[in-house]
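INTERNAL AUDIT FORM
Audit reference: QA-55
Scope: verify that the stored structure record matches its stored sequence.
Auditor: D.O.
Record contents follow.
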Amino acid sequence: SVHFINIINQTNAINPVLIIHSGDYVDGLGCMDEDYMYGTGYTSPVNDYEYGELLETLGYLKNYMATTVGNHDVSRGHNPGMGEALYKEWLSKLYYSFDYGNVHFIIVDTYEDQDAWWFVGDKGMYGGYIYGTQKDWLYNDIYANTKPITCVSMHHSLALPPNPNPDWTVNETFLNRSNAMEIYNLLKGNVSQIFCGHIHDYIYYNLTATSGDVISTQSSPGLPCIMAGNAGGDLDKQYFPYYGFVMVHVNQSGIMGHTFIREDQYALSVTYSRNDGTQSEVHANITNTGCAIPQVRLKFVLSNDYGQYMAYSATKNQRVPVALHRYDNYTIGYVSVDAPLNSADEIVVCPERGIQLDADKNIVVLPNSTVLIPHVITNTGLCGERVLINVSTDNITWSAVAVDSNDTPISEIYIPALSSKEIFIKLTVPDAGDGDRCNILLNVSINGLPWVYAALSDTATCMIIFHEYSGLAVVIPIASAIVCVLVHRYRRHR
């Protein structure tokens, strides 16, 4: 439908790490050679052409999508097994599991039981069921899992959602209630989140058990379930009469929540400058005039000309985290930002302009760059002091000067008693060769003499403390310090 195509384009801009679809990709009901079992006019069975059109549409997705089989995809009519065969040929296995980061995903088939599928009058039963081989596999998979977070995607819910439509029957959930109870007992305590579809609506609820049956509730704790069937078919409109999709927020600690993004309120635009792996600086402009979107994952494709890149918001004038993955011919950088309602931002990824330490604790910089090396000077004395600062280098082509946080050159600062001040050495690096080095001499003194506080002891009490980089820190407890700076020129790997 046009709604599903819109949602594909919307998720592409958000760029999630993973997409899960909860089933019903095609209209037909699984290779029937007679009329559509509801008697509503459908006469064509699912066929290669319909799946071919589906894959053409799904081809616009830019991220991996885990597929979950639905009853429309494999209903067998008088040709048992043919719908399943087409689904496995075109999409995926009927049930499987995989790991992504610290999450274990389990995809199950709730429409597999041939014997439980039957006609009542001229209407077929299309509720859920998990039995036999798959149930044994599910048990073994759950108890072999070592990931801290586990999510299950199933087409049918184990129970009707709270306050269901009076016209809904057992076809909207698991047909066999004892089987639903079996699966619930297997999942509870072992699963963090269930995703389901089938009903064309959105609602969040918990699954629990009472009197030997699985029920749903929004007022009691239980097994969390997100029903999200609003991505394309005609809406049931019992709970949420809007098309859209659900964003689930996961970090190392667990599932932090979710957000329903309405298709009709979506107005996010993400545009990049040249983003094809040939550039060492790429800009992304994000504009959002629709609903608030809690996270947009930007993907930057950079050249391998530099070994380290940084990211910053040009709009907010602040650095933001970037996750880098280096490949043979390019580097991928991922930056996650929020997109509040009526917001605009520009994110830039460029060669690292700051500093880092190598294994020998040398400060590593890039050629043709200016870096700020931060230091904290601590006055451990009982009175304030005016401190003179002098910076020099042993390489006449390199220049260094002390500056404050406003990038203003300084030659002295006042430090109150028992307090600290941060300064920066502003180092300008020329087009140096790979491995070139420069020593920076930083002198801190009072009235031209090395700063030594001797009222309580005759030991030096001025410390220059190097900030921590890459898990390393250097502390030099003397009044005069030498810093070694090493230039790295990173080359493209062919």
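Auditor finding: record pair retrieved intact. Confidence is low (pLDDT under 50) at residues 29-44, 118-123, 451-494.
Action required: none
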